[in-house]
């Protein structure tokens, strides 16, 4: 049971990245390939706050949320707004990811830094498997975030407006929806969310400058498995990737986790090309 708990906890990290991808996809019909780097930056800020500066927990969460939110705001202005077209956005956000990777190395170097857990570092035995309190909080937090965002998107006027934008951006604009403002708000929100969850993710992944690239790849696979534009799919996809990675590493060896993740991805897409929760749009021409 321990590999399952381990898979669910690392899958929760992938799910957080996938949620960030999905929110931006709903708002812009494109992906922010720098979102994983935003989370990585939040983890390094958490290390600085907890270890270097010995700041209170609330202050670290606040600094991470505001700091990464401002970086996301800057990214929207320099990598999204001046460029038209989803394909161009993929290139510019990838460039922003490279820039953040370089900035991380310049500030903190290449060494692996341990981020202390928020709250208790106790380990429990649940259903015969060992799991840490931090991992339980991480798993429950991801589920709660996805449930709250799903409910908000279906019950609030802002959420419905974002869904309308995802369906037809031009039609939403004609209906009086402030498309640019809502899209900007969604983009900054993903940065703030990455900042808030960074202190929770850090104890699981540690702070290392190569983390962003690894999370970006697995997060995108999680989105593809779950279905583009689906928040529940992002969570399920993240858990699937984490479980496959953990169980294949346990039973097949350390050389197989990444291979098996892509084997599962290909198998799912062959059976359901739109992903587990994705839908295929049909248009009459």
Sum up the structure in keywords.
285 residues; mainly alpha; ABC transporter involved in vitamin B12 uptake, BtuC; 74% helix; 3% strand; globular
Structure description:
This protein is an all-alpha fold. The chain has a single domain (2-271), classed as ABC transporter involved in vitamin B12 uptake, BtuC. It is built from 11 helices and 2 strands. Strands 1-2 form a two-stranded antiparallel sheet.
Rg, please?
19 Å
Strand count, sense and barrel status of the largest sheet are: 2 strands, antiparallel
| Helix-strand string | HHHHEEHHHHHHH
Number of domains: 1
% residues in beta strands: under 5%
Under CATH, the topology is which? ABC transporter involved in vitamin B12 uptake, BtuC
| Oligomeric status | single chain
Q: What is the number of helical segments per DSSP (H or I, 4+ residues)?
A: 11
Which structural class do the helices and strands define? mainly alpha
Q: Name the poorly predicted regions.
A: none
The total strand number stands at: 2
The termini sit apart by 52 Å
Which percent range fits the helix content? over 70%
In round numbers, the mean pLDDT is 88
């Amino acid at each position: 049971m321990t590999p399952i708990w381990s898979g669910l906890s690392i899958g929760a990290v992938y799910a957080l990245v996938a949620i960030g991808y999905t929110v931006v996809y709903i708002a812009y019909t494109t992906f922010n390939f720098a979102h994983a780097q935003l989370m990585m930056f939040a983890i390094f800020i958490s290390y600085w706050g907890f270890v270097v500066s010995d700041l209170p927990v609330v202050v670290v969460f606040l600094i991470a949320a505001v700091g990464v939110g401002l970086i996301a705001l800057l990214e929207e202005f320099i990598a999204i707004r001046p460029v038209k077209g989803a394909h161009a956005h993929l290139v510019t956000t990838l460039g922003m990811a490279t820039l953040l990777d370089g900035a991380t190395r310049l500030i903190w170097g290449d060494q692996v830094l341990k981020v202390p857990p928020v709250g208790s570092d106790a380990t429990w035995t649940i259903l015969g498997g060992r799991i840490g309190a931090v991992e339980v909080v991480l798993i429950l937090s991801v589920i709660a975030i996805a449930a709250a965002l799903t409910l908000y998107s279906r019950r609030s006027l802002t959420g419905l407006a974002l869904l309308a934008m995802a369906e037809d951006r031009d039609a939403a604009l004609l209906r009086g929806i402030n498309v640019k403002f809502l899209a900007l708000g969604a983009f900054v929100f993903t940065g703030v969310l990455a900042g808030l969850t960074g202190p929770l993710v850090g104890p699981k992944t540690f702070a290392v400058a190569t983390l962003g690239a690894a999370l970006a790849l697995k997060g995108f696979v999680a989105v593809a498995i779950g279905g583009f534009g689906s928040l529940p799919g992002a969570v399920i996809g993240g858990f699937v990737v984490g479980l496959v990675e953990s169980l294949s590493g346990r039973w097949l060896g350390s050389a197989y986790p990444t291979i098996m993740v892509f084997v599962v991805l290909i198998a799912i897409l062959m059976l359901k090309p739109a992903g587990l929760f994705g839908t295929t749009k049909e248009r009459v021409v």
